[in-house]
């Protein structure tokens, strides 16, 4: 497969992965572009791998993790706005669906990547380990810690909602 064919076939998949990892559409497009650019530079090597798409996904994930380590990457989701409305907001369903994105944004970059690859990209631990360059046992441990963090944040929110 030529690079142009690969980019046309898998470009949107890379953007979706970038979005689920970063939570930002513009950053997702940047990550996909970086991954495709690096894959293009080394296309012969990419083609020789067992799974070229996994190789490019690994480039994208490593680019995201590298981006989060830089000082300029300090964006954080806005804090929840407290309001004392007496009438229920019709957009409450949208806000509730946004809770998962906010909880994911609070995880470390590696924890978020592991959960995204497992649950959004439907990868098994071995494949995730290949993409991240770590052992499958590290993938399981990271996923366990991340899920525990999400559960504790959810329980904290439940307790907080009961307070007047």
Give a nutshell description of this structure.
The chain is an all-alpha fold and 164 residues long. It has helices at residues 3-22, 25-41, 43-48, 52-69, 92-106, 109-120, 125-132, 136-162. It folds into two domains: 1-74, no CATH class; 86-164, Arc Repressor Mutant, subunit A (Orthogonal Bundle), CATH 1.10.10.10.
CATH topology of the largest domain: Arc Repressor Mutant, subunit A
At the fourth CATH level, what is the homologous superfamily of the largest domain?
Answer: Winged helix-like DNA-binding domain superfamily/Winged helix DNA-binding domain
Q: How would a crystallographer describe the biggest sheet?
A: none
Helix content: over 70%
Total tally of structural domains: 2
Q: How many extended strands? A: 0
Q: How much β-strand is present in the residues?
A: under 5%
Subunit arrangement of the protein = single chain
- Secondary-structure arrangement, i.e. CATH architecture of the largest domain: Orthogonal Bundle
Principal-axis shape equals globular
Low-confidence stretches: 158-164
CATH hierarchy, class of the largest domain: Mainly Alpha
Structural class: mainly alpha
User: Separation of termini?
Assistant: 61 Å
Order of helices and strands: HHHHHHHH
Q: Count every helix, treating DSSP H or I runs of 4 or more residues as helices.
A: 8
Give the overall pLDDT as a whole number. 82
Rg from Cα = 18 Å
């Amino acid at each position: 497969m030529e690079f142009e064919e690969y980019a046309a076939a898998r470009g949107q998949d890379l953007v979706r992965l970038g979005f689920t990892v970063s939570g930002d559409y513009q950053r997702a497009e940047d990550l996909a572009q970086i991954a495709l650019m690096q894959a293009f530079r080394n296309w012969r090597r990419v083609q020789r791998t067992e799974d070229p798409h996994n190789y490019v996904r690994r480039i994208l994930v490593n680019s995201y993790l590298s981006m989060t380590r830089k000082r300029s990457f300090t964006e954080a989701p806005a804090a929840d706005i407290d309001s004392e409305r007496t009438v229920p907001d019709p957009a409450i369903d949208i806000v509730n669906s946004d809770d998962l994105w906010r909880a994911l944004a609070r995880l470390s970059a590696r924890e978020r990547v592991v959960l995204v690859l497992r649950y959004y990209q439907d990868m098994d631990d071995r494949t995730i380990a290949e993409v991240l360059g770590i052992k499958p046992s590290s993938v399981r441990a990271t996923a366990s810690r991340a899920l525990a963090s999400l559960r504790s944040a959810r329980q904290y929110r439940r307790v907080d909602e009961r307070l007047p």
